[in-house]
Design brief:
Radius of gyration: 11 Å
Strand content: under 5%
Largest sheet: none
């Protein structure tokens, strides 16, 4: 999965935030729609689409979508 594909898949987990709000350098926890439920759906998306396992701690340690992508790829 490329970074662009990851950003698109990440954006797809949000219902109300416009897709153009999502870039590699988006600080996702600052998004109004971000919640613990969204975090769980992101963890599931990474598991299903990348076959990688990330934790809540990994998400807390990530600031941008690209940070999370790089962290998932390092697993």
């Amino acid at each position: 999965m490329t970074l662009d594909e990851f950003v698109s898949a990440f954006a797809a987990e949000f219902d109300e935030t416009p897709e153009d709000q999502f870039k590699a350098d988006t600080e996702f926890k600052a998004l109004e729609e971000w919640s613990s439920l969204t975090a769980l759906s992101i963890i599931a998306m990474i598991d299903e689409q990348m076959d990688k396992t990330v934790t809540g701690a990994d998400i807390r340690a990530s600031k941008t979508i690209e940070d999370l992508f790089n962290l998932a790829n390092s697993k």
